[in-house]
Amino acid sequence: MIVVMGATGATGGATLRSLSALGVPTRALSRDPARLAAALDGPALALARPVAADAADPASLREAFQGAKQLLLTMANGPRQVQYELNAVEAALACGVEHIVKVSAPAAEPDSPVAVSRGHHLVEERLRASGVRTTVLRPYAFMQKLLLQAPAIAAGVLPGAMKRARCNYVDVRDVGEAAAEVLTRPESAGGTVPLTGPRPYSHQELAALLHELLGHPVRHLELSPSEFHAHLAGRAGMPDWLATHVVEIQQLATLREEEPDDAFTRLTGRAPRTLEAFLGEHLHHFR
Ligand SMILES: NC(=O)c1ccc[n+]([C@@H]2O[C@H](COP(=O)([O-])OP(=O)(O)OC[C@H]3O[C@@H](n4cnc5c(N)ncnc54)[C@H](OP(=O)(O)O)[C@@H]3O)[C@@H](O)[C@H]2O)c1
After folding, report:
1. Predicted model pTM
2. How far is the CA of 95 from the centre of ligand 1 (A)?
3. Where are the alpha helices (DSSP H) in the chain?
4. pLDDT digit string, tens, across residues 203-220
5. Where in the chain are the domains?
6. 2-138+172-195+260-268 adopts what CATH topology?
């Protein structure tokens, strides 16, 4: 049995969809399983048994993991993320889970410039020390998160703070397919898997692509990190910690060149989804 944490969320939901499409039964975990039906369509849930558990409550996790062999460990970013994920690791170990697929992030290192990635490093370290079979997925920025910028883009502006650096956007549906692959083919499991799209984009290139697809000009607006933070926390309505995270991610791109990686193709046998295709599917959001 596979337990999918964060089943109402981006990576958990995408994994559940991919596993359902492969005909694999799952336990879909949420703090409020009633939310699963709102977050996912019928086919995605056809083979999923909803289970209530809260990562703040270790006993609820141990109950949810009873008899499970594999776990997708994925958690919303937030101030208590590391503790919640460590609770899930301990509960999985106590229940004899044999393979944990951890959704992590790039630069998961002790001195990472991205605070969330330092947290992912702590969880990865605990998994390594435990000796349990682990696959670490390290996706880059999700294409879907560009939808948060839709109001600004619709007004013809793409604000950012990464100068001419490029970002390796990946479609979260590919993250779900990669997770399903390592959960269903034991020979694919293990190791650390960077997940990228086929090519990275600078903000200048992204603005030009949006202009071409939308048919109206989209101007890249380079801001200082603090101006960009103010934009995200103000106009885009993000909580302060999330705005800080987005700024840190863009600063990371200026410090380390983002190159595409062929791990997804090696894993699944096909090329990752393109940013052009994603934007083409979602143009109505940017108009
Ligand atoms: N966004 C990106 O571009 C990006 C890029 C690379 C890596 N990542 C990493 O990917 C990971 C997953 O991101 P995501 O976008 O899939 O997350 P998400 O959609 O924001 O949230 C995932 C799930 O976490 C669950 N959750 C929150 N608190 C919980 C708790 N106390 N107990 C149990 N479940 C709880 C929620 O489920 P319920 O509300 O139903 O309980 C939610 O559906 C993050 O850790 C992030 O660092 C993200």
Report:
1. 0.97
2. 22
3. 10-21, 34-39, 42-45, 58-65, 81-94, 115-130, 150-154, 172-184, 203-214, 225-233, 240-255, 263-268, 275-281
4. 999 999 999 999 999 999
5. 2-138+172-195+260-268
6. Rossmann fold (3.40.50)
